[in-house]
Amino acid sequence: MDFSYEQTTKIIFGKGKISRIGAVAKEYGTVALLVTVPEFPAVSALYQKVKAYLKEAGLRVVHFDGVVPNPTTESVDAGTELARQEQVDVVIGLGGGSSMDTAKAIAMAAVNPGRAWDYLFFKTPQPEKTLPCIAVTTTSGTGSQVTQVAVMTETETCTKSAVFNNLIYPRAALVDPELMLTVPEHITASTGFDAFCHCFESYLNVKSSLYTDIIALEGIRMTAKYLRRAVRDPGDIEAREGMAWADTCGGLAIANAGVTLPHGVGMTISGHCPQIMHGESLALTYPSFLRFTRPAAVEKFAAVGRILEPGLFGASDEEASYECCEAIDRMLKEIGMWISFRRFGVSTQTIRRIADRSHDLPDYQANPVIAEIDEIYRQLMDGYERT
Predict the structure, then answer these.
(1) What is residue 310's three-state secondary structure?
(2) Tens digit of pLDDT for each residue in 160-181?
(3) What's the Cα-to-Cα distance from 4 to each of 169, 257, 267, rounded to whole Å?
């Protein structure tokens, strides 16, 4: 019972809450940089609606639509330059984790010397200020709307890393489940599994606390109840609402406890293989990660197993922990995330390079048991031709 917990983001959660974007943004500035992926038919109406709300509230809107999946330093630098040129005073990330992470990085870099990549978590000096950022999530998975992390990739070196600083917590997060009704099935599955992993890994994390455990277990319960439903029927608003809450719980948990081995490895996968979505990178390694980690965290695996399979409440911790691994395997198969590296055209040589750099990020150190490089390579190869 010795912990600290910080969360400075105002969370505005519920159906129809997008209508408040103008009023919320007006609290922080008068010139807004809207940060999104390029416009396409499924988001066109939303973009126009958000711009209209902002203009009705009296803001001038500058639109940066250069966000790319697995955000790159080039994209962040371009957005930063636009923010400086237009002298924006509030940044709005509208979309999935890539848009929100890019927005947070731009908001920070726009008012500090140099570029966002200069302020990675391990570098000095750290930023001294940031523009206020508002996060509007349209997917349920990354939790970026409530975290102090902005992830990006330096393409030249295949290095995926992050800014990690409490200054970049979004000032406000709008979580409107109605914005998620048009998300396709596979993206729903990939982001939803990421939300589960955030909750599961923060629960296992050696830095977890009573506070983060409560939040993480709530997110796991929501995922167990609603992820399959959201994948089967993207228009199920109750399932979308439940997954939006699971996603937010995951973000709140990792902001204070952190993630573990799969996320560090997953970041390295995405750095070398940008065609692989973050949730997919987790699915590629999770079955092996579970069996490797379970003996070091039997009680916690058992607790999660009993959430995923209520029939295990009468079972021993050993049995329930084992069945937890089986239940997560089944979930991956049911949501179409039982996948292999071969599917993405990844060579065994690339897998070796990924393994060799899998200790670049410190997440593996927070796992209940440490995985050395050769063990990580084994886990990666286990996912090479998974059937």
Answers:
(1) helix
(2) 999 999 999 999 999 999 999 9
(3) 16, 10, 27
Beta bridge partners of 94: 136
Q: What is the pTM of this model?
A: 0.96
Distance CA 32, CA 26 (A): 9
Residue 121 token pair: 């978590």
- Answer positive or negative: Cα dihedral of 59, 60, 64, 65: positive
Which pair of structure tokens corresponds to residue 376? 């990580």
Count the alpha carbons within 13 Å of 140 in the hemisphere toward its beta carbon.
Answer: 37
* Cα–Cα distance, 194 to 212 (Å, whole number): 17
Q: Is the pLDDT of residue 1 over 80?
A: no
Quote the DSSP letter at residue 68.
-
* Residue reference for tokens 């599917």: 343
Tokens representing 377? 């390579």
Please give the full DSSP string across 198-246, using - where no structure is assigned: HHHHHHHSTT--HHHHHHHHHHHHHHHHHHHHHHH-TT-HHHHHHHHHH
- Whether the CB-CB separation of 358 and 263 falls below 8 Å is answered with no
371 half-sphere exposure, CB direction, 13 A CA radius: 33
- For the chain, the straight-line distance linking the first and the last C-alpha, in angstroms and rounded, comes to 44
Take residue 386 and report the two structure tokens written for it.
């998974």
Cβ–Cβ under 8 Å, residues 289 and 262: yes
